[in-house]
Amino acid sequence: MGLLEVRFHGRGGQGMVTAAQVLAAAAILEGKYAQAFPEFGPERRGAPVKSYLRISDRPIYIREPILRPDVIVVADQSLFKAENPLEGAKENTILVVNGAYKAPIKTYYVDATSLAMKVLGRPIVNTAIIGAVVKATGLVSLSSVAEALKKYFSGRLYDLNLKLVETAYQETVGL
Predict the structure, then answer these.
(1) Which residues on neighbouring strands pair with residue 8, listed in sequence order?
(2) What reaction does this enzyme carry out catalytically (predicted)?
């Protein structure tokens, strides 16, 4: 497998930090090494944030921002105007985006906001994004994600978020 690096772009309150953490936990459950960490200061809800995820079959010793990601995740398309989420993309980088978007790299999209509103009643897209990332990359299994979600949600919230992951997985489309 080697090292796989994922960079998440979102806005405060969308749950991109949690999305990276859940995927890291799922990878660890599968016997892989993983690290997830955010890059943000004291931003308010709605401000741009980045989160990073590394998964490998060997220990990971680097602890720095991901500049040349294998996967770029964009939870809010307005970020394409506010910054350049595609910066550092390689020829084979995969883009996972909330909503249809035409990009010069392989792109997968899902309407995460609509799905979150339908399932959760709130526009918190992190678990929909998790489903889309798993569909686009296969970096972990859905069963590992289901187990990892238990560390972050319980009861009805767990059930709703698992449903959102599974629905987004099914509805993710590649361009």
Answers:
(1) 51, 73
(2) 2 oxidized [2Fe-2S]-[ferredoxin] + pyruvate + CoA = 2 reduced [2Fe-2S]-[ferredoxin] + acetyl-CoA + CO2 + H(+)
